[in-house]
Amino acid sequence: MSRSRSNRAIELVDAALVPVVGGVPAHDDGGDIPIRSGSAIAFVRVAVDGPLIELFSPVLVEVEGSPLALERISQLNRWVRFVSFGWDSGTVYASMHLYCHPFVPEHLRHAVGVLTSVADRLDDELRLGLGGRRFFGDEDGDGTGGAPAADSSGDDTEVDNGELPEALLAILSSTLTVKVSARSQRKSPTSAAATAETSCATSGSPNCR
Length: 209
Known about the structure:
Blueprint: H1 3-21, E1 33-37, E2 40-46, E3 52-61, H2 67-79, E4 84-88, E5 91-99, H3 105-130, E6 133-134, H4 166-175, H5 190-203
Antiparallel strand pairs: 1-2, 2-3, 3-5, 3-6, 4-5
């Protein structure tokens, strides 16, 4: 994608997300747009190699790459359409891709809503079995943006290794309704997530509230 087209795509994305963040979206040092939802955060990135918008969310951080974690991720990829899940360097992430030629603002806003909703609800469900911590909420006191706190009484709950929790399946079936074109190539969100975790804590960006 040429620089002029890339800049135009960024302008279109910024304009489309104004209703979502309540103003002109802030960009992090890598050019991504961080959007907070409860205890989760999602990033919106305009690809430089084609008419593509990448969305990704670090659902849990500090998760060991155990066989159980990889199996749970594999289960999510079998059950959930349009959202892909992976593990990279201790981070369980969810991602989506949007083909944006032509660019449809409603499609982007819908995709952001789906991804942030899934990430905000999945972090609590997955943490019971996999450990780790949510992106926001476990260490920042009341800074969870009004999201329900994790149920501390469930930290020692045994989770069946063979199936996803029934509540999780209900969440997925009720929230994932958007049709999105996907590509197999993924970019690791780990560095962007780490940068945003620091910048959100120090900069007071309106996207992260």
